[in-house]
UniProtKB/TrEMBL annotation, chain A:
Alphabetical list of InterPro entries matching this protein: Cyt_c_oxase-like_su1_dom (IPR023616), Cyt_c_oxase-like_su1_sf (IPR036927), Cyt_C_Oxase_1 (IPR000883), Cyt_c_Oxase_su1_BS (IPR023615)
Subcellular location: Membrane
UniProt keyword terms in alphabetical order: Electron transport, Heme, Iron, Membrane, Metal-binding, Respiratory chain, Transmembrane, Transmembrane helix, Transport
Signal peptide: none
Similarity comment text for this entry: Belongs to the heme-copper respiratory oxidase family.
Pfam families: COX1
Biased composition (Basic and acidic residues): 553-562
Transmembrane region(s): 40-64, 84-109, 129-146, 166-194, 206-234, 254-277, 289-310, 322-347, 359-381, 393-416, 437-458, 478-499
Topological relation to the membrane, as annotated: Multi-pass membrane protein
Region (Disordered): 553-573
UniProt protein name: Cbb3-type cytochrome c oxidase subunit I
Main location: membrane
Automatic annotation (TrEMBL), chain B:
Origin species: Aporhodopirellula aestuarii
PANTHER family, alphabetized: CYTOCHROME C OXIDASE SUBUNIT III, NITRIC OXIDE REDUCTASE SUBUNIT E
Lineage, uppermost ranks: Bacteria, Pseudomonadati, Planctomycetota, Planctomycetia, Pirellulales
Membrane-protein topology: Multi-pass membrane protein
Gene3D superfamilies named among the record's database cross-references: Cytochrome c oxidase, subunit III, four-helix bundle
Annotated Heme-copper oxidase subunit III family profile domain residues: 42-416
PROSITE patterns noted in UniProt: COX3 (PS50253)
Compartment list: Membrane
UniProt main location, coarse: membrane
Keywords: Membrane, Transmembrane, Transmembrane helix
Highest taxon in the source lineage: Bacteria
Protein name in UniProt: Cytochrome c oxidase subunit 3
Region (Disordered): 1-21, 250-270
Compositional bias ranges of the Basic and acidic residues kind: 11-21
Similarity-based family: Belongs to the cytochrome c oxidase subunit 3 family.
Length: 573, 416
């Protein structure tokens, strides 16, 4: 560093400023309006839900170790299996993936990235967290009353006739829907009205673009799920005859209503992951993001196109052939903006100076896995192949590559990327990388064999299977165990950092977005005055300080013009 | 805090936030300017209204699909809905939208007395709406016009007693008691509320708590309006004697006497066993036939008597007495409408009817909740020309609830 530059570094927060310590006691957390604390509580909540859903997944895989079923035994074995995969799906979708990135990371990051003090409606924000908790309680009570065996989609007429606790679970999903709506609404308003002076739409970090697109879907699609589930509850309690064929209703109508939400919901799950990856790739390649506007617009394009393709879940439900052709064609259009993103990330990495940090390892595995997930989707969007592959393990593998290989991996990458900012501690880098490698290998071990299983005709949701599938199923189960170990390892790395991690500097990775301009962890008020807004991906003035092991932002010393100080008494006095 | 005096409340708020004079008490800490706060709130409420529209859109979709699939069911069944009551509720809601918009204006101009009056009238209209609605609901429940799961309407006996409901339709005794006395069950919560508010008003008057009394007084009127609505509904649902004249069998006379209803019964009066017994009375006499009937009562008027006889003979022939048994030759439109009145057909209409109006009523209840909050805040004089956002936002919500009813009324009541 030459002497003609001044470096800027916010230093470390005092205990009075630190949002984690500025007030103490359980009530100061329960009634907090601070978006950072709410984000952290969400993080703990979704991680717990993920642990429960993950254990259920291991239960599924262990049961499938043997063609006749290994894990659950006795006369009720198949029923238990049905309940386990249903709850695995429902918990993972409604309690984990949908709130994971937007609610946990989004809550923490959106206001800080905007240089704002809080989200637009802090009370609404807290209430969405409590709605999430209530929804979770309903799901848990469904688990402990009489279970749930409809699959996470609650298809009628089975869901109106089964004697498991459909009402509890759908009420839970209804409440979680409102939690999601309020979070989305909050973010849209925050991003619209609370950007700092100088931050135009195209100077926003791409994570905010992705969050904005996600929020649009949350606000537009989730109410439809709400009314669908409400009508389903009415169907079960009063038999209103809309979905139940026994009372002259139409089950396919239910499927249309359900997928009108649930397909856009797929993009609620994946779009924020795109946002994270855009940040991670650019920061850890230390290179300006390639094609900023294309990535930003493609998020919005995906959000809008996502509303037009729900029918591809129902190619075999008996729609007219013209309808299926239209839905199939529209489905292919979604792949265009998705591909734009992937190519732009690759172009960003090209000739960048890549630091292979833990978050970057996750980002690279994301690109690899998401590409596989996306390309296998083309087979399912094609009518001819879908008729063969519908309801097989091929579908299971496809959406796990997108949801787990995509969203979960991006979520983990995001957690590792912003962990120093959230808790103020650095984790052990080499252990983090090993964990990410285990996750990558375990994931592929679990789900690659399932593509083969599906294309050979193994139907999904079966508790037992033909012995010819045994080898691939066992391979998948061992992969799942490895994946579980990898995730546990990653979790331990994070927990150990809390106990003995190095104190995190304000900017450990060399990011240029605003969250790196405040201390780690940020003070409760985020920024004392609105921060200076520059290009979020311009890394020219960010330099590595080897002595302190952190990045600092530098700027050329400004010469005051005129050089000499004017006279003591101003002329117009 | 508990005072209507604006000066003292203002000084109090200034004490709490005295450290920051360019940041007034009503401006949330994370907003820089009042404009930013207002814009955020406005965008927020508009987005919320978008979600509400989409929430209802699911049911409108269901309505459109089932109407397309079975138009005759919707035509046949919508005649059971009382257009007068629906029209009155439409008027009430439209008027409440006017008072709500006026309330927003009053908040902007700081006319506090008028603001309280306007919000209280909006609330009263909401209560009248619910009162009328509970008459409509309880009337239909008593007749068994329910979703297909519990539909038991029987035109031979449209108003069964609780015992008949148990014996003929297999309901439990408590359910039958509820169905026949549903109006009391619907009114009970509001009665409890009314008594509670009345006690509160008296108590706050006696103990001289001015602010509480100022809140309780309009709320008492609001609670009373519910029973005003119930009374209004009762008069319209049971009133009118023209029904008895138009009707031949006279069995339903006086039970549900408005003109549309008479129409409904009229077209569905064919006894169930038309084809089997052929013992059909002249059920489809036009209204001028009724006049002839009256004239024929006089023995002197032989011309009218002959005319009546001829008409009856024609009717007998028309209803198939000369057709061989078992031939369903001429049942035509009657046959179709006959089939409409079944659990599986009419039930779907009422399933959709209850879902749509029920969810709308829940929104009215929610609106009442936030309006009460606004009422108390406006009595406290929280709003001023710079800070009237909450009144504005609640107003927008209220207009949406009104708007949805504007769509529900023609779709369910009017379109034939």
């Amino acid at each position: 560093m030459s002497t003609s530059t001044i470096s800027r570094d916010p230093g470390y927060p005092t205990d009075r400023e630190n949002y984690l310590t500025n007030s103490s006691g359980i009530l100061s957390w329960m009634f907090t309006l601070d978006h950072k604390r709410i984000g952290l509580m969400y993080l703990i909540g979704v991680m717990t839900a993920f642990a429960v859903g993950g254990l259920l997944a291991l239960g599924i895989r262990l049961h499938l170790l043997d063609p006749e079923g290994w894990m659950f035994t006795g006369a009720e074995a198949n029923n238990i299996y049905n309940q386990v995969f249903t709850l695995h799906g429902a918990i993972m979708v409604f309690l984990f993936i949908i709130p994971s990135v937007p609610a946990a990371l989004g809550n923490f990051l959106v206001p800080v990235m905007l240089g704002a003090k809080d989200v637009a409606f802090p009370r609404l924000n807290l209430s969405s967290f409590y709605l999430w908790c209530f929804g979770a309680i309903f799901f848990v009570s469904a688990l402990f009353s009489s279970g749930l065996d409809t699959g996470w989609t609650f298809y009628t007429p089975y869901s109106t006739t089964t004697d498991t606790s459909v009402i509890l679970a759908t009420l839970g999903a209804f409440i979680l829907g409102f939690s999601s709506i309020f979070t989305g609404l909050n973010f849209i308003v925050t991003i619209n009205t609370m950007r700092p002076p100088g931050m135009t739409w195209f100077k926003m970090p791409l994570f905010l673009w992705a969050t904005y697109a996600t929020s649009i879907i949350q606000v537009l699609a989730t109410p439809v799920l709400g009314i669908t589930l409400l009508l389903l509850i009415a169907e079960r309690t009063m038999h209103v005859g809309i979905f139940d064929p026994e009372f002259n209703g139409d089950p396919v109508t239910y499927q249309h209503f359900f997928w009108f939400y649930s397909h856009p919901a797929v993009y609620i799950m994946i779009l924020p992951a795109f946002g994270i990856i855009s940040e991670l790739i650019s920061v850890h390649s230390h290179k300006h993001i390639f094609g900023y506007r294309f990535i930003a617009y493609s998020s919005i394009a995906i959000a809008l196109l996502g509303f037009l393709v729900w029918g591809h879940h129902m190619f075999t439900s008996g729609m007219s052939s013209l309808t299926t052709i239209i839905f199939s064609a529209l489905t292919f259009t979604v792949s265009v903006p998705s591909a734009i993103k992937v190519f732009n990330w690759l172009a960003t990495m090209y000739k960048g100076s890549i630091s292979l940090t833990t978050p970057m390892c996750y980002a690279i595995s994301f690109i690899f896995l998401f590409t596989i997930g996306g390309l296998t989707g083309l087979f399912l969007g094609t009518l001819a192949t879908d008729l063969h592959l519908h309801d097989t393990y091929f579908v299971v593998a496809h959406f796990h590559y997108v949801m787990v290989g995509g969203t979960l991996i991006a979520f983990l990458g995001g957690v590792f990327h912003w962990w120093p900012k959230m808790v103020g501690k650095m984790y052990n880098e080499s252990h983090g990388r090993i964990a990410s490698l285990l996750v990558f290998l375990g994931f592929n071990g679990t789900f690659l064999p399932q593509f083969v299983l599906g294309s050979r005709g193994m139907p999904r949701r079966y508790a037992t299977y033909d012995p010819e599938f045994a080898f691939l199923h066992q391979m998948s189960t061992y992969g799942a165990l490895l994946l579980g170990c990898g995730l546990l390892y990653a979790f331990i790395v994070l927990m150990l950092s809390l106990a003995k991690g190095r104190r995190a500097p304000a900017n450990p990775w060399g990011g240029a977005t605003l969250e790196w301009a405040c201390t780690s962890p940020p003070p409760y008020y985020n920024f004392e005055r609105p921060p200076v807004v520059g290009d979020p991906y311009d890394f020219h003035n960010i330099e590595w300080d080897a002595k302190e092991e952190k990045y600092i932002s530098t700027e050329p010393e400004r010469k005051l013009v005129p050089e000499e100080t004017p006279g003591q008494v101003p002329a117009h006095h | 805090m508990a005072t209507i005096d604006s000066l003292s409340s203002e000084s109090e708020t200034h004490d709490e936030h005295g450290h920051d004079h360019d940041h007034p008490a009503w401006l949330a800490h994370h907003f820089d300017t009042p404009e930013q706060q207002f814009d955020s709130g406005k965008l927020g409420i508009w987005l919320f209204l978008v979600t509400e529209v989409l929430f209802f859109s699911g049911m409108f979709c269901a309505y459109a699909m089932f109407r397309m699939l079975r138009p005759e069911v919707f035509e046949g069944c919508s005649q059971f809905l009382n257009t007068k009551l629906g029209a009155i509720n439409t008027g009430v809601l439209l008027f409440s939208s006017l008072t709500m918009a006026w309330a927003v204006r009053c908040a902007q101009t700081e006319e506090y007395k008028k603001l309280v009056v306007m919000i209280a009238s909006t609330l009263s209209c909401a209560m009248v709406f619910l009162g009328v609605k509970s008459i409509e609901y309880s009337h239909k429940w008593g007749m068994g016009l329910l979703p297909p799961g519990s539909y038991f309407y029987d035109e031979a006996n449209p108003h069964p007693t609780a015992q008949q409901i148990v014996d003929q339709h297999g309901f439990s005794e408590s359910a039958a008691y509820f169905l026949t006395h549903s109006l009391y069950f619907l009114c009970a919560p509001f009665l409890i509320l009314l008594i509670g508010v009345a006690i509160w008003a008296v108590y706050s008057k006696v103990t001289d708590k001015q602010f509480q009394y100022a809140c309780a007084k309009p709320l008492l009127v609001v609670c009373l309006s519910f029973f005003g609505g119930v009374g209004l509904g009762m008069i319209l649902e049971s009133g009118g004697g023209e029904h008895a004249v138009a009707h031949v069998d006279g069995e339903h006379a006086g039970d549900h006497g408005d003109a549309d209803h008479a129409h409904a019964d009229h077209s569905h009066d064919a006894p169930a066993e038309v084809a089997a017994t052929h013992a059909v009375p002249a059920f489809d006499i036009e209204s001028d036939d009724a006049a002839i009937e009256l004239l024929a009562e006089s023995e002197l008027n032989t011309g009218a008597r002959a005319m009546l006889e001829a008409k009856q003979a024609q009717a007998e022939m028309a209803t198939g007495q000369i057709v061989a048994a078992g031939v369903e030759a001429d049942l035509g439109i009657h046959r179709i409408e006959q089939d409409v009145q079944t659990k599986r057909q009419a039930g779907v209409f009422f399933g959709i009817y209850y879902c749509m109006t029920g969810v709308h009523a829940i929104h009215i209840l929610g609106g009442i909740g936030v309006l009460v909050w606004l009422l108390i805040r406006s009595i406290r004089q929280d709003f001023n020309r710079q800070y009237f956002g909450p009144v504005d936002y609640v107003g927008l919500y209220w207009h949406l609830v009104d708007l949805i009813w504007i769509y529900l009324f023609p779709l369910l009541y009017l379109i034939r």
